[in-house]
Design brief:
mainly alpha; about 35% helix
């Protein structure tokens, strides 16, 4: 597939890429992964090379990566569901400050440790209560 697009080379984006050092240039030769990662198998280097393509149109698809021989041991088509639609990461649009992040992390912890429920940090950022096992150690004088 020919991905040369003459319009790209006359755009500000092209000038931006040209401002990088030659080592990072888009038109530079690719790094020899086998030389950089001597313990990586040829199949592993091949998959990694396909995944690290700068041009997204040349990158290996998720489906093709899962079917790559390097991942054959882990590939199970019966246990690899395909999304029915485009994944939306709406949670990334939340206006987040340190307190909100702390509350969300604590809520996630509580979902796995119900014994901690009700101890989320307050708006002032007060620390959550100690985990029961730490409370026992503290009441025993640290022993």
């Amino acid at each position: 597939m020919d991905v040369y697009n003459p319009r790209f080379y006359s755009t500000p984006l092209s000038l931006y890429f040209d401002s990088f050092s030659p080592r990072l240039s888009v038109n530079n030769n690719r790094v020899n992964l086998a030389a950089r990662l001597p313990n990586l198998t040829a199949q592993g280097a091949n998959l990694l090379d396909q995944m690290l393509q700068f041009d997204p149109r040349k990158r290996i698809s998720v489906q093709a990566a899962l079917e790559h021989p390097y991942l054959a041991t882990y590939h199970d088509p019966t246990n690899e569901p395909v999304a029915s639609g485009v994944f939306k990461a709406d949670f990334e649009n939340i206006d987040m400050d340190k307190t909100k992040l702390r509350q969300l992390v604590y809520a996630e912890i509580e979902s796995f440790h119900p014994e901690l429920r009700g101890g989320a940090p307050d708006q002032a950022g007060s620390p959550a209560p100690m985990h029961p096992s730490k409370r026992m150690r503290a009441s025993d004088g640290g022993m």
